[in-house]
Q: What sequence folds into this?
């Protein structure tokens, strides 16, 4: 949570670099990355300074002592290595912006593989290493992230990339680009932070209803993440495409890219809908413990019903992520922040009233959540349909634009979106 604001802020590198690329000003793509990296490094001491507040929160939440100490240890190690995640985010956004998403995938797979391997060695004390337990898990996460960063850095500093984007000339402060990144990126960062906080409260409200509800919600949201995360990838792709075509002053092709993203998202969501609506018992069964005669026997019917209701909003989720990605790619970040934050906190307030004031129980409350999710996507659709995004310009054209570099790995020109 301490990093979310800065991850969102520097994450706008995707849209800005894509706009500069579409505009033909390729050297500004690397300049944007440098400014994002400077923000990330400046954020590191701020995150460290906020560490005592997070530790205080552990005490306020009255977490059992046996859980609190390992939690503090794990948190401390991750905080001290947070600059790795911030820098990795900057480079990931650059490669997403220019269409070289394979590099991002290789980086993520490398980080995951190293994390799993190092965790196994350090947690359990294999290969002659001492068994570090939870400390080893945190160290493994940091080492995995560092390896993922190394993959991105190697690709970024490669000869072809340095030549195409004039990387060697980008290592300095550019006030114009820095202020532009802060201006358009801070709404995304604030949205990320406030929405994560609202989502945490939403989970807490459900979990406070008892162990059965808590377990059912955990099952449902685990499967919801399976449905949601691939759509985030489409969201990033739409942001990159719309940013590039808006930079090229071609809003019509940006619109076609958005519709292509929507079709792809709906294709994936169709599979999710079928799984949630038709096979919820199998999905819930994945979490079935060896002895399922106790609490889990009561969890199953509630979790299955909640999964079936979740099928109501999977298409709406796809619409929200696609249209929000398009709006952010065009530069409509402030409106997107206001709408998204207002929605999430309205949802928290509604859930509080349904559960704590009206005592309606988890299933009616979850139905209300699903219906609100469905309506929210149409708010973003109406904003997109209004067309204001077509007139926004983050990047103004220069008299003589540079030719686009041939490094896009399958990133098609506007005519072939």
A:
């Amino acid at each position: 949570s301490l990093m979310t604001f800065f991850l969102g802020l520097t994450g706008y590198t995707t849209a800005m670099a894509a706009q500069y690329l579409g505009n033909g000003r390729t050297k500004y793509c690397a300049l944007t990355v440098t400014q994002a990296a400077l923000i990330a490094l400046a954020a590191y001491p701020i995150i460290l300074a906020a560490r005592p507040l997070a530790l205080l929160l552990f005490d306020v939440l009255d977490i059992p002592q046996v859980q609190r100490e390992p939690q503090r240890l794990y948190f401390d190690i991750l905080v001290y290595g947070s600059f790795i995640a911030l820098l990795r985010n900057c480079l990931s956004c650059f490669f997403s912006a220019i269409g070289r998403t394979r590099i991002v995938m290789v980086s993520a797979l490398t980080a995951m593989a190293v994390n799993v391997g190092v965790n196994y060695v350090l947690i359990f004390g294999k290969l002659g290493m001492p068994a570090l337990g939870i400390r080893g898990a945190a160290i493994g996460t940091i080492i995995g992230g560092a390896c993922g960063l190394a993959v991105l850095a190697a690709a970024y500093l490669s000869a072809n990339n340095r030549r195409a984007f004039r990387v060697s000339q980008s290592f300095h402060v550019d006030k114009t680009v820095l202020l532009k990144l802060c201006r358009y990126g801070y709404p995304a960062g604030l949205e990320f932070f406030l929405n994560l906080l609202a989502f945490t409260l939403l989970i807490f409200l459900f979990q406070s209803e008892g162990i059965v509800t808590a377990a059912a919600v955990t099952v449902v949201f685990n499967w919801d993440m399976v449905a949601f995360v691939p759509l985030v990838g489409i969201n990033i792709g739409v942001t990159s495409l719309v940013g590039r075509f808006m930079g090229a002053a071609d809003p019509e092709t940006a619109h076609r890219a958005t519709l292509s993203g929507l079709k792809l998202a709906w294709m994936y969501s169709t599979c999710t809908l079928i799984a949630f609506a038709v096979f919820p018992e199998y999905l819930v069964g994945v979490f079935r413990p060896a002895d399922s005669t106790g609490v889990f026997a009561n969890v199953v019917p509630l979790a299955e019903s909640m999964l079936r209701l979740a099928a109501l909003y999977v298409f709406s989720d796809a619409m929200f992520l696609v249209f929000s990605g398009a709006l952010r790619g065009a530069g409509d970040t402030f409106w997107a922040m206001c709408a998204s934050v207002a929605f999430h906190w309205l949802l928290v307030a509604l859930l509080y009233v349904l559960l704590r004031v009206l005592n309606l129980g988890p299933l009616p409350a979850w139905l209300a959540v699903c219906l609100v999710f469905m309506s929210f996507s149409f708010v973003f659709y109406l904003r997109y349909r209004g067309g204001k995004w077509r007139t926004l310009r983050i990047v103004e054209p220069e008299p003589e634009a540079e030719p686009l570099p041939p490094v896009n790995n399958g990133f098609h020109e506007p005519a072939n979106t």
